[in-house]
Amino acid sequence: MAFDFGSLLGNKNPPLIGLDISTSGVKLVELTQAGKGEFCLERFASESLPRGAVVDGNIENIEQVSEAVRRVWKKSGTRAKIAALGMPPASVITKKIILPGGMTEDELEVQVEAEASQYIPFALDEVSLDFDVVGPVQNSPEDVEVLLAATRKEKVEDRVAVAEASGLTPTVMDIESYAARAAIDRIIAQMPKGGQGQIVGLFQIGAQVTYVSVLLDGQAIYEREQPFGGNQLTQDIVRAYGFSYDEAETKKRSGDLPEGYERELLDPFLENVAAEVTRAIQFFFTSTPYTRIDQIFLAGGCANIPGLIDVVADRTKTSTAVVSPFQGMQLASTIREKQLRSEAPSFLVACGLALRRFD
Q: 187 partner at 20 to 30 Å CA-CA among 37, 233, 240, 324?
């Protein structure tokens, strides 16, 4: 299978599931169209992964991950077998290049391969390569801007193997940060004046990594990964109370922890998150011409921890909200709204992948 930004072949919008495989678990989303530009959330489900099954975005245990995908597919109740999957941004090299306009697809492909060899530190036969024509170059309309993306073939093949072992057909492989952006673009469009001119900071706080994207008028103007995530709180719980890692993770989610937990562990962790967000914003200011952020959105598994919004807003002096990628969507009758509210921020990538059905 090609590393594919492209639209699905055949039937215009066949049922498709967005499948997000991360360090901590597998998330599935299925959307349908409910009118022009309107969507309905048909199904969503998640399943946790054993520690070590996925490490730093690499699938280390195909069997364990396939088993989790099978379980999440069954749990969701979907019948869709076509899947869009994501690649971690760190494992994909992306580069915008300028090429002469008017070339055929085949000519473009040859030219992209020639250009790619300059930027990719691997032999081209070890790489899955894809490209997408962005559009004419602003000051040079006879040229086109082309986005090329390349990743090691084995990384794509591992994800394909997981999907196929679970009985699914992978047809789209996207970059997780692009999928998240597709989901957040919908939310920004719901802001006053469609979010025009607003600088939005998106912080996806995962298990081990916080992915920072700063967006302006549909473009990412800054992106960065910071090695910080919810696992830090889980490790603190393990050390403080002597639980196993899995026990600590379960109790963290349910809030079933000894008295004093909030004061001794949770509050310092929230302060740490706020400090990481502030640090990321400072990096953004020092490495770009921009000097403000108008809106902060928090996503990922930690985003809904009570009190986090207030601590981040107070520390950054910036309007802060937890983002639900399903905001403004219709909900199928089978969706449990209470569960959706608590889990939605961690489904940003899965939702963006599911939106590929409508490209």
A: 233
Residue 304 pLDDT > 80: yes
**What single letter denotes the amino acid at residue 267?**
D
Length of the chain: 359
Alpha carbons 150 and 212: distance in angstroms, whole number? 21
Which residue from 94, 122, 177, 105 is spatially nearest to 352, judged by alpha carbons? 177
pLDDT of 11 reads 45
More confident residue, 8 or 214: 214
Question: What residues have CB less than 8 Å from 244, skipping those under 6 apart?
Answer: 238
Instruction: Report pLDDT digits (tens) over 96-154.
Output: 889 898 888 888 888 888 888 888 888 888 988 888 888 898 888 889 998 889 999 99
The overall average pLDDT reported for the chain is 91
Which strands sit side by side in the sheet containing 127-137, from one edge to the other? 93-100, 140-152, 127-137
Close Cβ partners of 187 (under 8 Å, ≥ 6 residues apart): 297, 323, 324, 325, 327, 328
The DSSP annotation for 18-79 comes to: EEEE-SSEEEEEEEEE-STT-EEEEEEEEEE--TTSEETTEES-HHHHHHHHHHHHHHHT--
| Separation CA 204–CA 177 (nearest Å) | 10
pLDDT band at 12 (very low <50, low <70, confident <90, very high): low
Q: Can you tell me whether residue 226 is helix, strand or coil?
A: strand
The model carries a pTM of 0.92
Sequential DSSP letters for 150-200: EEEHHHHHHHHHHHHHTT-EEEEEEEHHHHHHHHHHHHHHTSGGGGTT-EE
Per-residue DSSP letter, 264: I
State residue 255's pLDDT score: 85
Phi, psi angle pair for 217, to nearest 5°: 50, 50
Which residues in 110-148 are b (16+ Cβ under 10 Å) and which e? ebbeebbeeebeeeeeebbbbbeeeeeeeeeeeebbbbb
Strand partners, 41: 31, 331
Select from 275, 246, 284, 62 the least CA-distant residue to 154: 62
Contact 350, 18 (CB under 8 A): yes
